[in-house]
Specification:
Chain A: Keywords: Metal-binding, Signal. Chain A: Pfam families: SBP_bac_11. The complex is a heterodimer. Chain A has 9 helices and 10 strands. Chain A is of the alpha/beta class. A 5-stranded mixed β-sheet of chain A has the order 2-1-3-10-4. Chain B has one domain: MetI-like (MetI-like fold). Helix content of chain B is 80%, strand content 0%. Classes of the chains: A alpha/beta, B mainly alpha. The interface between A and B is medium-sized, with 22 and 20 residues.
């Protein structure tokens, strides 16, 4: 009931900003979310959020969800420079803190995994194997959550990795394995499952200590706050959560 | 005469001034927002030095490659009548208009470890270009070479071919005529082309990060460092940008007499 009230009120509050594309007085707008919802989400959420976006649009006729997927650090930077986003879903609390101090909710967790070429040609079995000099390794840059998770994992294992490249987001890192340019990369388990046709994943015990929390928030300066809130609610709902857990994300 | 010239149409002046402001304001913003107090600290960090050194080495090497391959290519386009010359010229201009990141993808598909040519480099010589400094040079040369070729070809077309013909009638071979007559004539054009090519290589981002990856000291050139620093430490990004701005202005000043001054 409170949710409904918020949805009813939001267009009226927003009317002052001139943001909604439909006039709030029209009967169609009352009680429904309208216009475009802009979601900035971590690259590792590309597949799941695209699916959730489609489901959300199906349940809210007339609403369009637009995504900007990228490294959480790059997205946080864009938002703090004034990018018109309604929702931010980050792959780490650190990048969330750059744009929102309060209000963010952890909606999933994700574990790092070693991505290797199909059939694991170099027989990589442990985290120590990827630090061998003959193994070409790609990592995410330190400021991106998957890079921070990798650093943590290597610290726990007391290993010093020798990556050949530090990529700007997890999908770019994964692509280097897909193309065969590197032999191994540290990405998230969910990224490996999403690309299971081209690559294999290798679990390692230290991953448990490098788990990332994913927070999501409706931004304070959201041009479409009602739409943003409805989307966040949908992600947190049973249906949204199911898409995420099916893809290999852990419930918080 | 003076009175007529003084009446400048407002319809032209206003958009002109807006256009000028549009081009100049972002640069002024960069200078205003630069963390002057901590500038020296930022500049003296190891990362900045490494990125700057790598950028200069790669841009200079790429320019050298472009000179060795590009000047003969420009000569072929300007002075020969071989079949397919017009198609060749069209191909030379493609990297000019191609988004550099597309160039990076294309390079990856050809010279990558599984690429059309790269797979043989890897299996025969155990050598692969991505993630190496050589890879950065290749990416920069790919993007920058058209600038040199177009500039030199333009200079060659502007030069009178009768001097070469005269050299030929005096018994000089075509190679001799090229070396002793053509090259000295178009030297200013080559110099201007080389500087433009070098500047383009110095600023290269898309093809480099796509093809050569990003690792400090090996493949992280200044533009990549700026891009990644912006996410973590905007002040560093501003300082790095300022360095690139200074280098670019220095190039412009060095070109002033040769290139801009010549037309003014």
């Amino acid at each position: 009931m409170r949710k409904l009230a918020a949805l009813l009120l939001a267009p009226i509050v927003l009317a002052g900003c001139g943001a909604p594309e439909q006039p709030p007085s029209s009967p169609a707008a009352a009680g429904s979310v309208t216009g475009a919802v802009t979601v900035f989400a971590a690259a590792s959420l590309t597949e799941t959020f695209t699916q959730i976006g489609k489901d959300f649009e199906a349940g809210h006729p007339g609403v369009r969800v637009r995504f900007n997927f990228g490294g959480s650090s790059a997205l946080a930077q864009q938002i703090s420079q004034g990018a018109p986003a309604d929702v931010f879903a980050s792959a780490s609390p650190a990048n969330m803190k750059q744009v929102a101090d309060t209000g963010a909710v952890t909606f999933v967790r994700n574990k790092p995994q070693i991505a290797v070429g199909k059939g694991n040609p170099l027989k990589i079995a442990t985290l120590a194997d990827v630090t061998k000099p003959e193994v070409k390794l790609a990592l995410c840059a330190q400021q991106v959550p998957c890079g921070a998770a990798a650093t943590k994992a290597f610290e726990v294992a007391k290993l010093t990795p020798k990556p050949v490249t530090l990529e700007q987001d997890v999908k770019a890192t994964l692509t280097k394995v897909k193309l065969g340019e590197v032999d191994a990369a540290l990405v998230y388990r969910t990224d490996v499952s999403a690309a299971a046709d081209d690559i294999d994943g290798v679990d390692f015990p230290e991953a448990i200590q490098a788990v990332n929390d994913y927070p999501i928030v409706t931004l304070t300066n959201a041009p479409n706050a009602a739409g943003g809130k409805a989307f966040v609610d949908y992600v947190l709902s049973e249906k949204g959560r199911q898409v995420l857990t099916t893809a290999g994300f852990d419930a918080p | 005469m003076r009175a007529v010239r003084a009446r400048v149409p407002v319809a032209l002046v206003i958009p002109a001034l807006i256009g000028l402001a549009f081009l100049v304001l972002p640069l002024i913003g960069l200078v205003i927002r630069a963390p002057w107090a901590t500038l020296v600290d930022h500049l003296s960090t190891a990362e900045v030095g490494e990125a700057l050194r790598l950028s200069l080495i790669c841009a200079t090497s790429a320019t050298a490659i472009c000179l060795v391959l590009g000047v003969p290519l420009a000569w072929m386009l300007a002075r020969t009548e071989i079949p397919g010359r017009r198609i060749a010229r069209a191909f030379v201009t493609v990297p000019l208009v191609l988004p550099p990141v597309v160039g990076g993808v294309a390079l990856l598909l050809v010279f990558g470890r599984r690429g059309v040519i790269g797979q043989y480099l890897d299996s025969w010589f155990g050598f692969s270009l991505p993630f190496t400094t050589t890879g950065v040079i290749v990416a920069e040369a790919f993007v920058a070479m058209p600038f040199l070729v177009i500039a030199v070809e333009g200079a060659l077309r502007g030069a009178d071919p009768r001097f070469e013909e005269a050299a030929a009638t005096l018994g000089a071979s075509r190679w001799m005529a090229f070396r002793r007559v053509t090259l000295p004539t178009v030297a200013p054009g080559i110099a201007a082309g080389a500087v433009l090519c070098w500047a383009r290589a110095l600023g290269e981002f898309g093809a480099t990060i796509t093809f050569a990856g990003n690792f400090p000291g090996t493949t992280q050139t200044m533009p990549l460092a700026v891009y990644l620093a912006l996410e973590q430490d905007p002040d560093s990004a501003t300082v790095l940008s300022l360095v690139l701005l200074v280098v670019s202005v220095a190039i412009l000043v060095s070109l002033r007499d040769r290139w801009i001054g010549a037309r003014a």
